[in-house]
Amino acid sequence: MELVFATNNLNKLKEVQLLIPEHIKLLTLKDIGCFEDVPETQSTIEGNAMQKATYIKERYGYDCFADDTGLEVEALNNEPGVFSARYAGEQRKAQHNIQKLLKELATKKNRNAQFKTVISLQINNTNYTFTGICKGEITKTQQGEKGFGYDPVFKPHGYNQTFAEMDLSLKNTIGHRGKAILQLIQFLNS
After folding, report:
1. Is 67 a catalytic residue?
2. Which class does domain 2-189 fall in?
3. To 5 degrees, how large is the angle CA 44–CA 45–CA 46?
4. What are residue 130's DSSP bridge partners?
């Protein structure tokens, strides 16, 4: 089985490649000759995932899946949410996003947050959706060098490390994207 993962994010690709079983050949956008920016103009995480998967299926004809992920912070009315990658502006700089987040939370006691990943699968002319959530809290300082995005300031409940301090195998086991990918794999294997 061949399946396109509709992402240009090499960090996401690396995480997913470790989880996908060998009998599924994972193709990248580059593999199918897609070099344009895939649109993400919806107002929800679910909508963006579906928009990206539909875009690839309609324009390139491949069965594919796409994900969208957001960090939802309780004290900020679940922001940045769908705007997580562009929280501090269109330049999409992780460090700027983290600095803005820490500044917004500086006077807040409630630091509860969750990462939410939604995967949209377009296969056999049908769309399927899988959701993974990881609850945790935002730390007051950045910790760790691994991972990407908000990983240095997100500590999952029950752990003393941020995602940026964890081995990728542990992050994939307990994290939002890993949970959603596991649901996708179970579906594809059934």
Report:
1. no
2. alpha beta
3. 90
4. 119
Helices assigned H by DSSP within 64-166: 94-105
Burial (0-12, 13-18, 19+ Cβ within 10 Å), 174: middle
Tens of pLDDT, residue by residue over 126-180, are 999 999 999 999 999 999 999 889 999 999 999 999 999 999 889 989 999 999 9
**Using N-to-C axis directions, what is the helix angle for 176-189 and 10-19, rounded to 10°?**
50
pTM of structure = 0.91
Catalytic residue among 63, 68, 151, 167: 68
Q: How far is CA 145 from each of CA 125, 142, 150, 166, 175, rounded to the nearest angstrom?
A: 41, 9, 11, 9, 17
Query: How far, in Å, CA of 144 to CA of 97, rounded?
Result: 16
Nearest CA among 70, 100, 96, 99 for reference residue 83:
70
